[in-house]
Automatic annotation (TrEMBL), chains A, B:
Superkingdom classification of source: Bacteria
Keywords for the protein's UniProt record, in alphabetical order: FAD, Flavoprotein, Oxidoreductase
Name of the protein in its database record: FAD-binding protein
Source species: Pseudonocardia xinjiangensis
Pfam name, any one: FAD_binding_4
Claim: Transmembrane is one of the keywords in the record: no
Cofactor: FAD
FAD-binding PCMH-type domain mapped to chain residues: 46-225
Amino acid sequence: MAVTSDASAPPDPVVAELLAALPADRVLLDPDVMATYQHDEAEWAEFGRAAAVVRPRSTEEVAAVVAACARHARPLVPRGAGTGLSGGANAVDGCVVLSTERMREIVEINAAERLAVVQPGVVNDDLRAAVAEHGLWYPPDPASSLWSTVGGNVATNAGGLCCVKYGVTRDYVLALELVTAAGEVVRVGRRTAKGVAGYDLAGLMVGSEGTLGVITEVTVKLRPLRTSPRRTVVGFFDTLAAAGDAVSRVTARGVQPAAFELIDRVCLHAVNAWKHAGLPETAAALLLAQTDLPDPAGQQEAEAIHAEFVAAGASDAMLSTDEVEADALFEARRLAYPAMEQLGGAILTEDVCLPRGELAEMLARIEQIAARHDTPIATVAHAGDGNLHPMLLTRHGDEAGKARAQAAFEDILDAALELGGTVTGEHGVGLLKLSGMRRELGPEVVAMQRAIKAALDPQGILNPGKVVG
Amino acid sequence: MAVTSDASAPPDPVVAELLAALPADRVLLDPDVMATYQHDEAEWAEFGRAAAVVRPRSTEEVAAVVAACARHARPLVPRGAGTGLSGGANAVDGCVVLSTERMREIVEINAAERLAVVQPGVVNDDLRAAVAEHGLWYPPDPASSLWSTVGGNVATNAGGLCCVKYGVTRDYVLALELVTAAGEVVRVGRRTAKGVAGYDLAGLMVGSEGTLGVITEVTVKLRPLRTSPRRTVVGFFDTLAAAGDAVSRVTARGVQPAAFELIDRVCLHAVNAWKHAGLPETAAALLLAQTDLPDPAGQQEAEAIHAEFVAAGASDAMLSTDEVEADALFEARRLAYPAMEQLGGAILTEDVCLPRGELAEMLARIEQIAARHDTPIATVAHAGDGNLHPMLLTRHGDEAGKARAQAAFEDILDAALELGGTVTGEHGVGLLKLSGMRRELGPEVVAMQRAIKAALDPQGILNPGKVVG
């Protein structure tokens, strides 16, 4: 495939169409600039060289890009901020990468209907801040919320800290405007609280990683802003198994924390080393639970969680009413991944989700897998969801270590499947989980997935190779 | 198409296969018996004569039925309890009707994972009662919950009273076992709190009315049983517009009632006439709101709702702490439809869902439509969702009245679409909303729907003519 910046090559007909159809500043052709758009943050996921990167500003411009690709059966790879960890936004050779970064308009915030309409490039935290001014709350809060976009969140069905109580992105998407593989602009979903007119196409698009259509507008449901004081319960555990047991106990008691996170010792150390956070590094793991019910129910919930932490054998457990202290602990959770990156080396990030009762067993198996493959593994988790993010650590350039980490990665997927879990809780299939997804779903269900892909994208131009392979 | 009970007709090859493959008591061939399985409760929705009705007891038996139909390209119409109001379970000539009424096993109730696994024929109320013994709660509660089945609820994405705060059936379906159009048994979805391995096929199946697969097992998410005392706020309004205004005010204030219903004067009268309930019939409409937060927050919410009822001009408004009294009012709401039936005549039931802010305007337009078409219309509503169920009343045998009611029915759909609503909030497309669905979605989205149908059911044997026409 010719790269158009190479003067000796024949002109690329798709690029020529893009240049003719769009204002000049929408199309990037410089290979060095394009390089930053050709992959997400998934370690070792393959990516190719794009023919062009386009940054449209409107639905019409997106439609023109898709139509050009459709006419030439050219791969189109949509991307948000590129914070994904599965390779879902990675370029294939000769493709057009479509970045939504310039589609940042908040089109509508409607307090009466409790909804907002945004372009896909609006950053998650920016949406939350904007609706807060209207007394409203957009719950989905992936750890990448400072950078990741609503469009990317929808394409991957992003989770986050709040979803243990408030659900994932899917639970907040009311309607989508999208450009189909044929270049048509359509609207799916609704603005009403309920609706069952036809198959749930909006739901089908959520988590489809740009393989079924390009999202150009998102209508999200909002909640009233929370006003109750948050209470944080902190527990320190000498073993990961004890921490897992604490999670099961809290769940079985019927308590619903608004966030329920786990950070292991390696991650605490990394955050301390980077941010001088002064976090305790003596315990094997720290559990952080937060309640948001109005008092006295909130206080009662916090006390119940505390009691279960103690019953599970916490070496220390405390209720924090100091919001600054609590925020620092949750900030440490959010910073775990970049902090690990600061330590140097390459990080392969897992995303398995287990039945909650299997959490302790899964944590034990991860330790065994780390030992078996001589691969250091640090773990953070949305513990209350059973969603673990073990991070497999290697040194740059250590090819043998990379091979061991990749073997450990697949072993973790197999262990999760054996315990009734899934290979991806919230990061998506992308490229890194293709094999695991096939093991999880089996050939008949994979065939159903591919039939749907073929039905909505007969030429296979939309983000080829992702989700369904 | 030959009916096999007709001795002079050649034997039906599908029926012969069914009789060979299944125990004898699974297959019904008596036309009088079959007649009760050939339609749901949708007034005036067409239905045909089935070749056989089968009542399998296991997934394997369902697979055998689908395989027989697939071999002969014979239509298969699955049904739950037949309480639907859109014709989604109506037979077509020569089809095999598959009733799930004998698949009533509750397979698993898992308190640790907060989930239950059930066969599709389990009755909604029976599931709720069974999980309550484990301290758990299954929220979706269509007014038909005493009779309707979980499988039917999933197939139609049933709503109910609780969904204003707790969501619809879709929000509780974790996984499904189904038999595909090819007769294969597959599992879609997951048992974990989160998961994004491949397209959301479980979500796609919810609300697809048996047109994409036959559901043989349902895994549902549960919540902890509510323990706080419920507080009910009752408001009487002299005009429907004032009641609509009260709903908007409560929503805008950020209060989230756990149920928020409207009953108009005609329905109150019908319930009184049937059950001697002693409900007041002086107001144009009654609003019923219930809170379930722990006190004092529950009390504060109830007082806020009361204040908004008064501000919207309620002729009377009160907080009820008497659970017996409150239950009687909600029972009246649930009984509205059968009570109207007791009055005699045929009832065409609507199911439009509006943006909440358009509720008052829509109620006004319904009054205009009733006058224009000389058709009495009684209304109950899940007011907090903007989901209205106007009931169009006619006398049996009054053909002119039937034609007027049908015209009014379509006018209500058009009015809902004009105000940004949907033609079906929770009853489904079935047959009665096919035309409205097309007007709502437009040709491009209808084409996407049909492409998915063709991808998963290439022969078009599964419940032909429903949802996508």
